């Protein structure tokens, strides 16, 4: 049986009744648990405070073949592993335990050769898993930099580390907070790969070249928050995240120029921005030289805060609308404006704070929701369902929306609202 059929079969067995129309709820948790070696091991971790269930919040997902990766940042004590996975082909429960990846030792807190905290990870077409470790414990005023920021790249076929690269001191500043990455494989193949990382609170964009094994930093005013867009109402809580700059980043398919577009947005913003990777791949360009190469797109309108987003190979952008408890879409053949932004699904209970969205190699859309504001600013009810993972076949997700239709990425000559300004 193929993995796609396994996913569909498991979803039929485990799916719960919700108001969702297209997304299927595959997994759900009141609180997270892990595949400890034994009950004794788990009890030991509980007694020593190395595992505090209520402090574990999942934020990021990625899918590679039979592995569904789930990240858990160390925002408080008691998070035993930050990078984990669920085996899709053997999981038969609605609330599966998380298995540390690649193993327990690599995720041990205080091990600066391994992982301390990661947020959103990316598997590429070269069977590599890219992970940016923030090296931090805590969140906000409690943050401690216990290890340096570092990029870890795994061979997914062997679960071995291919490379670890520590960011240079010049790549970060004393406000740096990186929660999102994008992977750019160029026309020359796997060696021609760049990682881009968004510095949300340090207001920067970092480039790393796999081939040269070097990194550098870009700055631009478009990476900063909109001072008029820092107010949020999510999960029954009103709060202000006015300092949140560049957050979600994703890449278009390769355009006729031979390069991609990087789409990005500050978290405190209702707008999307874009820049060519031709600019980001050049370490010699100064901020002054590249200022006009960045493009601003029209506003999404009120309630347009977006966390993560992901552009599929056909040029369809999927994004999480956190104000609306919804997952949206945009077909990049159409102008980026509110009337062309579709809603795939919405649920005021199940989709409170959709935190990450991905599309796998089998063209399934995956979404995780985690009630993050309630966790950070109030208190989760652990008698309720707090974390959910959903999926939907891509065509079914787009059906009936303005985004529908499998269309190649828009040719450069038609993209006068974005591409002509970038190139």
Care to give the gist of this entry?
By secondary structure, the protein is mostly beta strands. The protein has helices at residues 3-14, 39-48, 277-280, 287-290, 372-377, 394-398, 419-422; strands at residues 24-29, 60-64, 67-71, 83-87, 99-100, 122-123, 128-133, 136-137, 144-145, 150-155, 160-166, 178-185, 193-199, 204-209, 214-218, 231-234, 237-240, 246-251, 261-266, 273-276, 295-296, 306-311, 316-321, 326-331, 341-346, 354-359, 364-369, 387-393. Strand 8 (136-137) and strand 9 form a beta hairpin.
Question: Secondary-structure map with pairings?
Answer:
Elements: H1 3-14, E1 24-29, H2 39-48, E2 60-64, E3 67-71, E4 83-87, E5 99-100, E6 122-123, E7 128-133, E8 136-137, E9 144-145, E10 150-155, E11 160-166, E12 178-185, E13 193-199, E14 204-209, E15 214-218, E16 231-234, E17 237-240, E18 246-251, E19 261-266, E20 273-276, H3 277-280, H4 287-290, E21 295-296, E22 306-311, E23 316-321, E24 326-331, E25 341-346, E26 354-359, E27 364-369, H5 372-377, E28 387-393, H6 394-398, H7 419-422
Antiparallel strand pairs: 1-28, 2-3, 3-4, 4-5, 6-7, 7-10, 8-9, 10-11, 12-13, 13-14, 14-15, 16-17, 18-19, 19-20, 20-21, 22-23, 23-24, 24-25, 26-27, 27-28
Function: Controls the pigmentation pattern of the adult cuticle and larval mouth parts.
Protein name: Protein yellow
Family: Belongs to the major royal jelly protein family.
List keywords for this structure.
423 residues, mainly beta, four-stranded antiparallel sheet, 28 strands
């Amino acid at each position: 049986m193929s993995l796609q059929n396994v996913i569909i079969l498991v979803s039929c067995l485990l799916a719960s009744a919700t108001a969702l129309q297209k997304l299927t709820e595959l997994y759900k948790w009141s609180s997270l648990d892990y595949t400890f070696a034994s009950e004794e091991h788990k009890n030991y971790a509980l007694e020593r405070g190395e595992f505090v269930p209520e402090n574990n919040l999942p934020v990021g997902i990625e899918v590679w073949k039979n592995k569904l990766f789930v990240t858990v940042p160390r925002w408080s004590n008691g998070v035993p592993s930050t990078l984990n996975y669920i085996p899709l082909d053997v999981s038969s429960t609605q609330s599966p335990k998380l298995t540390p990846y690649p193993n327990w030792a690599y995720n041990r807190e205080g091990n600066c050769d391994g992982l301390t905290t990661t947020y959103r990870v990316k598997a590429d077409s070269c069977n590599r898993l890219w992970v940016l470790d923030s090296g931090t414990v805590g969140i906000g005023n409690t943050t401690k930099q216990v290890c340096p920021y570092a990029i870890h790249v795994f061979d997914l076929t062997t679960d071995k580390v291919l490379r670890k690269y520590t960011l240079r001191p010049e790549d970060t500043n004393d406000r740096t907070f990186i929660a999102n990455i994008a992977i750019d494989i160029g026309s020359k193949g796997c060696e021609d790969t760049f990682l881009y990382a968004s510095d949300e609170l340090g207001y920067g964009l970092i480039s790393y070249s796999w081939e040269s094994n070097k990194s550098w930093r870009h700055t631009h005013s478009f990476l900063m928050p909109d001072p008029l867009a820092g107010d949020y109402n999510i999960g029954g809580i009103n709060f202000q995240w006015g300092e949140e700059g560049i957050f979600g980043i994703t890449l278009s398919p390769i355009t006729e120029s031979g390069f991609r577009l990087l789409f990005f947005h500050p978290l405190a913003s209702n707008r999307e921005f874009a820049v060519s990777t031709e600019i980001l791949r050049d370490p010699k360009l100064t901020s002054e030289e590249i200022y006009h190469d960045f493009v601003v797109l029209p506003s999404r309108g009120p309630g347009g805060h977006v966390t993560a987003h992901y552009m599929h190979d056909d040029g369809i952008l999927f994004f999480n609308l956190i104000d609306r408890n919804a997952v949206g879409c945009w077909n990049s053949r159409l102008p980026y404006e509110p009337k062309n932004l579709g809603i795939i699904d919405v649920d005021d209970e199940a989709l409170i704070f959709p935190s990450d969205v991905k599309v796998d190699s089998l063209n399934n859309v995956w979404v995780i929701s985690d009630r993050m504001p309630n966790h950070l600013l109030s208190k989760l009810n652990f008698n309720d369902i707090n974390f959910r993972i959903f999926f939907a076949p891509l065509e079914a997700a787009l059906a009936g929306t303005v985004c529908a239709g499998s269309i190649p990425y828009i040719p450069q000559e038609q993209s006068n609202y974005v591409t002509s300004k970038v190139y």
